[in-house]
Amino acid sequence: MSDCHIMSAQPPGGRATDSSLEWEPVKDDALVYVRVELTAWNVAPLRCAAEYLEMTEEHAEDNLTARVEAYLEQAVLRHSCEATKALKSREELLPHAEELGIVSRCVEAISIFTSGPFATTARSSAASRSWFDDLAVLGLDMYRRVMAAMAARADVRTEARESCLVSYARGTITALSRSMRRLASAPASSEVEQRDLLEAVVTSVPTDKCSGRVVTAKFLFAQLWTAHILLALDAALGQKAATQLEHATLEDVLIPSYSGGMKTLYDVDCVERVVRYF
After folding, report:
1. Least confident of 88-102, 157-171, 201-215
2. 147: exposed, middle or buried (C-beta count within 10 Å: 0-12, 13-18, 19+)?
3. Cα 76 vs. chain centroid, distance in angstroms?
4. What distance in Å separates the CA atoms of residue 50 and residue 55, rounded to the nearest whole number?
5. What's this model's pTM, rounded to 2 decimal places?
6. In a domain, 166, yes or no
7. Which of 116, 117, 135, 140 has the fewest CB atoms within 10 Å, measured from its CB?
8. Which residue has the higher pLDDT, 177 or 183?
9. Residue 261: which domain range?
């Protein structure tokens, strides 16, 4: 983390010291003293504020814009989990964060981390592997942008993309987490939002056969279970589940029936459709 002591008057301008930014008062004698501890959560708001207040080198050497940019480059964009936090914090800052390139830079940083050598490094450490779970803080729009950026890179391994997909699904889709006996890390959302999340996850699953190491039979059939809970069954989902049918256990394929008109405890028709796709 980095500390900034900001002494500000209106409008900003003036001189800088070693540990603070100081501006001479223009219209009154009052100065506003603010101590700011830079973090991944506030770097985007501070960058937007610095731009709005024109706190640039033109007014003072080592002004707030320069300091925040340095922190963004050195402490945020070099670490995927920090870039994810900064990306989340920008949700209330559009379109300013977009215009300043904060969003695109954070998305690019995350996608780079999932490329070949970075993903290998991430898997080598239990602490580093948890960065996949950090994606659950992102809203659906930002998640889609991250996945699109990863898909556009030729050096991103399929396993890395699938890890991001599975972690996001488990962290945000309450029903999916329940079917896999896990707790969702994100706050519960509405049923409509849950359907949208499920649709986004299903769309992100590779159309060809998955690696099976990350997007497993258990995960795919849990999605079918979730689709039944949300009344959002999609034929494409059954087709993708069929690609891992040979690795599924009996417990995986026993999808409870949530329809009042069904005469069986489990949805036999759904399983039959998956078998036909297989």
Report:
1. 201-215
2. buried
3. 15
4. 5
5. 0.72
6. yes
7. 117
8. 177
9. 157-278
